[in-house]
Amino acid sequence: KAGVTQTPRYLIKTRGQQVTLSCSPISGHRSVSWYQQTPGQGLQFLFEYFSETQRNKGNFPGRFSGRQFSNSRSEMNVSTLELGDSALYLCASSLYSGAGNTIYFGEGSWLTVV
Amino acid sequence: AQSVTQLGSHVSVSEGALVLLRCNYSSSVPPYLFWYVQYPNQGLQLLLKYTSAATLVKGINGFEAEFKKSETSFHLTKPSAHMSDAAEYFCAVSVFGNEKLTFGTGTRLTIIP
Fold first, then answer.
1. Which residues contact B109 (CB under 8 A, 6 or more apart)?
2. Among partner residues B46, B99, B105, which is closest to A42 by beta-carbon distance?
């Protein structure tokens, strides 16, 4: 069974640009969540989608957005990139939404903003 | 709000020695607790999780953790360290009604040959 797949794995963007990251969850998983990992702030929750609806959102500015498609695939978008947005963005999936569910992570998308 | 504290950002143990990584949680409701491992340039891999079924949880790669409510702890142990255990380890918590994972700051484990 394929794991959580994230594309692209590495990308470099310029300040002010926007970026879209893609995530394909494990087959059959309907919940997708996104996390940002930086050396300074650690792992922080961005948002979670279940059945195409955003169920939970972290404390990030409105420049960070996401969506989920009917096939459970998800994308996140960051507009007007800032240097501080440089991070590893991790996508995770689980069968259902809810505490205690086993959450599986992808290998992440490394974003560098210059 | 729930939180976890990982004591010791860096831990070094000799190969073959006991591994003990500490995690304390704070939650006003029963928590679900997780340990994840991250190898360099990779994502997070689930080692084990506690969901109230049993206080002693066995995970992959010989790791286990014990939930102690009285101490609000969920420490990760492995009897004998292996070189391949060198990685960063994260403790995380979620609760009913706020299902996101809240992570600790991580502990980098170094294995001394």
1. B11, B12, B13, B19, B21, B81, B85, B86, B87, B88, B89
2. B105
